[in-house]
Design goal:
Blueprint lengths: L1 E7 L13 E6 L2 E5 L5 H8 L8 E3 L5 H4 L1 H12 L4 E6 L1 H16 L7 E6 L3 E6 L2 E7 L8 E7 L7 H7 L5 H7 L4 E2 L5 E2 L13 E4 L10 H4 L4 E5 L7 H6 L5 H11 L3 E5 L7 H9 L5 E3 L5 E4 L4
Parallel strand pairs: 3-4, 4-5, 5-6, 12-13, 13-14, 14-15
Antiparallel strand pairs: 1-2, 1-16, 2-3, 7-8, 8-9, 9-12, 10-11
Helix pairs in contact: 3-4, 9-10
The structure holds zinc ion (2 copies).
One zinc ion (ZN) binds next to loops.
């Protein structure tokens, strides 16, 4: 299961009710901040999630509404010492702009007070943790090096506690060894194989985050059947020409894509001040009913659809 917290949900400029793009994806005690628009620090404070363990940052692309908050965040991290290192992943072009901001404007020759790793994203695997993996894939927006992110809980075989009970396998480390695929010998000499206490393999939860995006035609494979999809809906269909011109989607286009890819639930963000939220929701829900137009500070748990 993943937790998804939206910190900022506005497109290009903040509104009274919405901050600029930023969200956190958590899996157990691992957290990833995705994008860091201007004002993200204050949104973190208001959300109550705290700054600890926010040292891994993924950037979808280098437009200012997605990166300007990094300067302030670095400055605060440096003063409060809430993290002992910082890792930022972004496409090469975005990373250049981020480097200018962090090293040219914020640090200006000073040595950062903790280790900072800036990674240029290449499509494919980015990070692997216990029971979870993260990969990146290219997204068509404006300019080079825009990426989306796939979070996947690794497949696992559930432990059948009732079977174990019936076989007389005592609770404790011996069960852990069976879960890890080892066979064990009980005190009475009987040998128990993992097969006897593990159910059939179950796919893990999958969550995809796509930031700004103007064309979904290459995304169907990576998004097929995912449990949760976060994607932008900057325009409405009445301004589809403008959406196309600026490399964005309409709510209807995002919903049509979710329907084609058969995703579990669709989360629409990057909402423009030019429309009312209700209009965005109506346009999308007419095509794909399992949809939410997210607001700042919304929290969701993403679980397996079955
Ligand atoms: Zn944007
Ligand atoms: Zn953009």
């Amino acid at each position: 299961m993943f937790e998804l917290i939206f910190l900022g949900t506005s497109a290009s400029a903040p509104s009274v009710h919405r901050g600029l793009s930023s969200q956190v994806v958590s899996f157990r005690d691992q957290r990833f901040l995705i994008d860091c628009g201007e004002g993200t620090q204050r949104q973190i404070l208001r959300s109550g999630i705290g700054f600890r363990r926010l040292h891994r940052i993924l950037i979808t692309h280098g437009h200012l509404d997605h990166i300007l908050g990094l300067g302030g965040l670095l400055s605060t991290f440096a003063r409060w010492e809430t993290v002992d290192h910082l890792e930022i992943w972004a496409g090469a072009w975005a990373l250049e702009r981020i480097r200018d901001l962090l090293f040219g404007v914020v640090l200006r020759g000073a040595t950062p007070p903790f280790r900072m790793d800036l990674h240029a994203i290449e499509a494919g695997s980015l990070w692997q943790g216990e029971d979870v993996r993260l990969s990146a894939f290219p997204v068509a927006h404006r300019g080079p090096g825009c990426f989306g992110f796939l979070f996947e809980e690794t497949e696992h075989r559930p432990f059948l506690a009732e079977q174990a009970e019936a076989l007389g396998v005592p609770p404790g480390p011996i069960r852990r060894r069976l879960v890890d695929g080892e066979s064990v010998t009980l005190e009475d000499g009987r040998r128990i194989e993992p097969e006897q206490v593990l159910g059939p393999s179950r796919k893990g939860t999958r969550l995809v985050h796509v930031g700004d995006c103007g064309d979904t035609s290459d995304l169907e494979e990576v998004c097929a059947g995912v449990d949760g999809l976060v994607i932008e809906a900057t325009y409405l269909e009445v301004e589809a020409d403008m959406a196309h011109q600026f490399g964005h989607l309409t709510a209807r286009q995002a919903a049509e894509f979710a329907r084609r890819a058969q995703v579990g639930h669709l989360y629409l963000t990057h909402i423009s001040r030019r429309y009312r939220e209700k209009e965005v929701l109506e346009e999308a829900a007419a095509v794909f009913p399992s949809v939410t137009v997210v607001r700042d500070f919304d929290r969701f748990q993403i679980r397996r659809q079955d």
